[in-house]
Specification:
- It is built from one helix and three strands; from the N terminus they run βββα.
- It is of the alpha+beta class.
- The chain has a three-stranded antiparallel sheet with strand order 1-2-3, with helices on one face.
- 2% of the residues are buried.
Length: 59
């Protein structure tokens, strides 16, 4: 039996976006670094929203 690897620390910062599959559906939940969340069926729309929605970003 092989050893289970340790969990890696979660990334954080103003360039970290998270995408979660909503269990039992065909939907995806997008989470921006600014904590805004939204669900999508289309991954292209999801990425458009993540990269273009208004939030206070430090660039």
């Amino acid at each position: 039996m092989t050893a289970v690897p340790a969990n890696r620390p979660m990334l954080s910062g103003d360039r970290v976006y998270r995408i979660h599959w909503v269990l039992g559906t065909d939907r995806l939940r997008a989470v921006c670094h600014c904590s805004a969340e939204r669900e999508f069926e289309d991954p292209v729309e999801l990425w458009d929203w993540l990269l273009d929605h208004p939030c206070e970003r430090s660039r």
